[in-house]
Here is the input.
Amino acid sequence: MSNQSPFPSVDRVLNLPAMQVVIARFGRARSVETVRAVLDEARAAWRVGSAGGSLCEEEAVVRCAELLEASEQPSLRPVFNLTGTVLHTNLGRALFPAEAVQAVMDVLTKPSNLEFDLDSGRRGDRDVHVEELLRQLTGAEAATVVNNNAAAVFLALNALAGRKEVIVSRGELIEIGGSFRIPDIMARAGCRLIEVGTTNRTHLRDFAAAISTKTGLLLKVHTSNYAIVGFTAAVPEQELARLAHEHGLPFVIDLGSGTLVDLSRWGLPAEPTPQQALAAGADLVSFSGDKLLGGPQAGILVGRRDLIDRIKKNPLKRALRLDKMTLAALEAILRLYRDPDRLAQRLPTLRLLTRTAEDIGLAVGRVLPPLQEKLAGSYSVSLCACSSQIGSGSLPVERLASRGIAIRPARKGRGEGTALEKLAVAFRALPIPVIGRIEEGALVLDLRCLEDEAGFVAQVTHLAVS
Ligand SMILES: *Cc1c(COP(=O)(O)O)cnc(C)c1O
Here is the structure.
């Protein structure tokens, strides 16, 4: 039995004319490897006597081509974010405008003056490409940039208060998704955390009593992803700044999101800006590049020149520095901020946040019919009012009125939850996966972030639902 295996040899399959097309497309090495794997698998199935335990040459080629084709799919790829969360950390946060894409393309495909001073012909500093813009936009004396805001906070703590004490209100000991926790960051940065006040109320006298010769700085952390409401008290920034300065200490604010414009001008809830923080007396302010700012992942530090200089001299700055793609994108985004009047058209994050429920409702009207047709019988598909979130811990309690598509299993009762789960799986299995959210017995697709309607509709026929 052992020498009558019903399988062609690897070489035989590799020499078939049909296989030459596969080899030309995927390369010889991967093709050989895959033919081997296909034949091994078939042989193993044959040995245990399972059905279909034989494989002809043609089948081997087809199977091989299928496997190679499937492996062509990149792991990191686009999806439709119909979760209603505009800055979704797990879905890549902010999207780039064309200006930023072009800037990235340029530095990727051509040499650049990344660290080269064109005036002197000598080595330059990569931060200069964004520092002047950041100074203009925030009014700060100096600025520097690193890999993300977590890195910015870490670096600032280490550079300015390593081996010293850092005083923070108990109401601000935040945890951001992905295990960024103020106490842990503090420990890793080599600082000793001194918590003052209580969860809901902290007073100036709590800070004053904690200051000693061991104090390195006073820190305020923006409670970006939660709100403390009710009987509360926090110390105004001006007062904390005054107290810090009386003792010759820096006052540092981690703003979290931080945007460079007043969002209320577009009817959005106001989020504190670095300009306001600096005007209130902060010596150093840190914020993210890819939250409300709408740019690349980056951490931005603005403030006093002497503090920024100390940060830039810290060896960790080199370990946390930005790469040229990010710098190019960040510069392009910051340039857009010089013209706030056109920002809502040009910056995708702001464009999506400012979309009106009426406009989104019109999109629902266009996308609904093909979905209704496809899902007829098994599901009811209808327009629904829903609310979007800004996301990434920005303005956690604020909601934006939006419109979406609610899809409910036609049959109520037992199995309804499973049917919904299956539906969500089917949407995620589309060529461009669609991510919605399950809410009150429906799969809700919030269309606020749907810009490529045609691309979405073109996929509906592929939806594998029973
Ligand atoms: C989001 C956030 C961070 C972390 O910023 P990343 O850019 O995601 O690293 C730090 N502090 C606060 C207050 C935040 O909201």
Q: What stands out?
A: The mean pLDDT is 94. The two ends are 43 Å apart (CA to CA). Residues 10-71 form one domain.
